[in-house]
Specification:
With 369 residues, this protein is mainly alpha-helical. The protein has 2 domains: 2-20 and 129-368, Growth Hormone, Chain: A; 57-126, no CATH class. It has helices at 2-18, 21-41, 57-70, 76-86, 108-112, 119-137, 139-145, 151-157, 176-201, 209-240, 259-282, 289-318, 336-360, 365-368; strands spanning 159-160, 162-164, 167-168, 251-254. Helix 3 (57-70) crosses helix 6.
């Protein structure tokens, strides 16, 4: 993925900026047609794993929630009696969300048909429910994720992008540093950090999946702090050279000032994005692993919506009464630095919430082992 994105940022952005937008979109169109032909040609030889006539995992989990809701007034003693008759739960993770244990006690009309929720089905429902506090706490990180394709690029467009005389790097090309950082850091993390950490922690992956995600969230905060400081420097440079009222003028400040925040975000990606992918894939029931990956991706999708919503609110609040908005079209009058400080604080609150939920999270041991 990163190799393809790197090629796009380094080649296609130059074509779009300097040659033709039509050609810049036409090349990936042709590439996708070729890729589709290759993909479809493999369907004749691919061998599918045929599943048995098992009940859908969505139906099983939904049945648990419906049964628990239906039995919400059941006394604890009746539930305890039913648990004892069915057998013991597998591990201490069953102590969470014990209200779902009410699904074990089905109404008489269901018992006659043999459709009583089993311990395994209740455990599946608990495993999915345990993921949502982590999912929610990661949303501030996803809001930060939306910035490097938008405001970071807009900043770069105002700065000195000259590499050699006559050649200016497209502002969007700096996103390639995220890909480069990811491609460099992943082998270092996997081959150096993990073995060293494993020697101290005795964890198979050096640190736990939740620790990895939280560390990446911390680096996303650092990325926002660095972005705010660089933007303060850019605004000061615009003032020093009397360019505040000239939005189309190039500020005499190298675009390379933006590289550290991109690289820090690449580091955060290696830890949080890869960690989330691994975590949601590992901690859902086997039949729901595609749903687990969808949950991880939905964090980024919802985060983009929240970013747009937050920007809309700030735009209205800061432009009220004729004041200059934080997101003025003239970036020299805007205050993206304030916005980055706000995101850093928001991510800090999100990290605290995440640490609280992660501390109480009980891994789905059967899946992890």
């Amino acid at each position: 993925m990163n190799a393809g994105i790197l090629l796009s940022f380094s080649v296609l952005t130059y074509i779009q900026d300097n040659l033709s937008w039509g050609l810049g979109f036409g090349i990936p169109c042709v590439v996708m047609i070729l890729a589709l032909i290759i993909f479809v040609s493999g369907t004749r030889t691919y061998r599918y794993s045929i599943q048995g006539e098992e009940e859908s995992p969505f139906v099983r989990i939904g049945k648990v929630f419906v049964a628990a809701l239906r039995n919400r007034r059941t006394s604890p003693s009746a539930i305890a009696s039913e648990e004892e008759s069915l057998g013991t739960f597998p591990d201490q993770s069953s102590e969470q969300f014990k209200f779902l244990n009410k699904a074990l006690l089905a109404p008489d009309n269901l018992k006659k048909n043999g459709k009583v929720c089993t311990i395994a089905e209740v455990e599946e429902a608990k495993a999915v429910l345990r993921l949502f506090p982590i999912w929610t706490a990661c949303l501030p990180y996803a809001i930060v994720f939306a910035q490097f394709t938008t405001f970071f690029t807009k900043q770069g467009a105002t700065m000195d992008r000259t590499i050699v005389p006559g050649f200016d790097i497209p502002a969007a090309s700096l996103q390639s540093f995220i890909c480069l950082a990811i491609m460099m850091i992943i082998p270092i993390y996997d081959r150096i950090f993990v073995p060293m950490a494993r020697a101290f922690t005795r964890e198979p992956f050096g640190i736990t999946m939740l620790q990895r995600i939280g560390t990446g969230m911390f680096f996303s905060i650092i990325s926002m702090v660095v972005a705010a400081l660089v933007e303060m420097k850019r605004l000061q440079t615009a003032k020093d050279y009397d360019l505040v009222d000239l939005p189309s003028a190039t500020i005499p400040m190298s675009i390379w000032w933006l590289v550290p925040q991109y690289c820090l975000y690449g580091l955060a990606d290696v830890l949080t994005i890869v960690g989330l992918q691994e975590f949601f894939y590992d901690q859902v029931p086997n039949e729901l692993r595609s749903m687990g990956l969808a949950l991880y991706l939905s964090i980024l999708g919802v985060g983009n919506f929240l970013s747009s919503f937050l920007i809309s609110i700030i735009e209205e609040a800061t432009s009220w009464g004729g004041n200059t908005s934080w997101f003025s079209d003239n970036l020299n009058l805007a205050h993206l630095d304030y916005f980055y400080w706000l995101l850093a604080a928001l991510c800090g609150v999100g990290l605290l919430a995440y640490m609280y939920f992660a501390k109480s999270y009980l891994y789905n041991r059967a899946s992890t082992i």
